[in-house]
Amino acid sequence: MPYINGQYVVTPQASVIVNDNALTAPAVAPGLGLLLIGPATDGEPQTPIVLSSPGQAVQALKGGDLLQGALLAFSPGAGLQGPGSVTVIRPEAATQATSAIKDAAGTATEISLTTTSYGTLANDAKWMVQAGTTSGYNVTLATDFVGPGGQTYPPASQANVGLQAASLYYTGTGTSPTYTVTDTEFTVAAVTSDTGGTITFTSTMTIAQLAAQVSQFTGWVMTATDPNPNDLVAPGSTAIPALLDNVSAATVGTTQATATAVTANVAAVVNWINGTGAYFTAARAAGATALATSSTWTYATGGTTPAATTSNWTDAYTVAQSIVGISIVVPVAGGPATPTSTPPYQWSDNDAHCSYMASIGQPRRGYVGDLLGM
Q1: Are 102 and 130 in contact (CB under 8 A)?
Q2: For residue 302, how many other CB atoms are within 10 A of its CB?
Q3: Cα–Cα distance between 374 and 262 in angstroms, integer?
Q4: Do 141 and 273 contact (CB within 8 A), yes or no?
C-alpha cells in the first residue's frame, strides 16, 4: 500500500502522474543572429531592418516571402528555439509614392509629400486637408491598404493644425497699413507717415526677436504669440523650413483688439505630418502661402515594386557584409519553379557571401531550399 504522488493507494490499481514542468515556452536564442533576404510588400530596399517580434515584422513588411520567413523564424515549431531578433533585407528596388498639397489657387506646390512605404502599396496612401474648425487646417492621413488577414490601418487626423506666430497692429498717423512676408524678410508699410521698414531674416533670428525689431518702427506693434517664441524664423537649412506663411501687402489692424495674426500654418502642417510618422513625410516649399482645402481624398502616386534583379540580390549581400552579429544567412525566395541541375543565383550569392565573411573572420552559415513542396 504505497504512496504515489502524495496519495495513499491500494494495490492492485492504476495511477497516473502528470508532470507539466517542461510545458513552458522554449527560450529564445538571442545569439542566433539570423539574417533573411527576400521580397516583401513594404520596407525600405537594401536597408537592414531588425525585427524583435512577429507583430513588428507584420508592421514593417506587410506581406511577401520575407514576412513569411520572419514569422516562421520566430515560431519554428514546438520545443524549438527561435531567434531573439531577425534582421531582414529587401532586395527589390521598390519606390516610394509622392503627392503635393497645392496653394489656395490649386497651382503651386506648398507641401511635398513622400510616402513612408515603398512599393505599390504606397499608392494606397491618401490625404485630405480641410479648413480648420476654428483655425488653421483639419488634416487627415490614411491608407486603403489591407494587410494579411484583412488587417486595416487607422487614419491619423488632427483638427485646427496651425500656428499664430505673432500679432501685429498699427497705431501711427499713416493710412492703409500693410505687411508683407517672404522667406527672407518681413516688411511693414503705411501711406504718407510712419511708413515702417524691412527686417531681413538671419539664420538665428527668433520670433521674439523679429517682433521686437518690428516694434521699433514708429507706430507699429508686434507681439510674439508663438507658444515657443524662440522658434527660428528662417533657420537657413532645407531640413528645417522657413516658418512664416508668405503674404503680400496684407491689411493690418489698427488696434490691439483688431490685431492681425501673423501665421505659420503651412509649417505647422508640415511639422504635424512629420511628427505623426504615419503614411507620409512632408517638406515645405519655398515661398509657401496657404493651402487649398477640399472634402475629397488625394492619393499618392508613383510607388512601384519591380521584381528583384540579379544585381539587386548582389547589392543586398553587399549590404549584409556590414551587419555585425550574424551567424545564419537565408535567402527566402528564388528557388527554381521546377527542380533543375543549376541552382538559382540567390543560392550562389549566399554561398559566396558566407565564404567571404569566413575569410575575414566572421564565419556565417548559409541555408537554402527549394519552393514549398519541392
Answers
A1: no
A2: 14
A3: 68
A4: yes
How much is the pLDDT for 340?
Answer: 55
| DSSP string for residues in 202-231 | -TT-BHHHHHHHHTTSTTEEEEE--SSTT-
Report percent pLDDT > 90 for the chain. 77
DSSP class of residue 52?
-
Integer Cα distance of 33 and 365 in angstroms: 10
What are the CA-CA distances from residue 309 to residues 46, 92, 96, 247, 303 (Å)? 13, 7, 18, 50, 18
**187/319 Cα distance (integer angstroms):** 52
What the block records as the C-alpha cell of 8 is 495513499
Strands 3-4, 7-8: pairing is antiparallel
Q: Is the pLDDT of residue 26 over 50?
A: no
Q: How far apart are CA 334 and CA 315, in angstroms?
A: 15
Half-sphere exposure of 361 (CA within 13 A, CB side): 0
In angstroms, the CA 86 to CA 218 distance is 66
Cell matching residue 97: 509614392
Q: Which residues contact 128 (CB under 8 A, 6 or more apart)?
A: 139, 140, 294, 295, 296, 297, 298
Backbone dihedral angles phi then psi of residue 228, each to the nearest 5 degrees = -120, 90
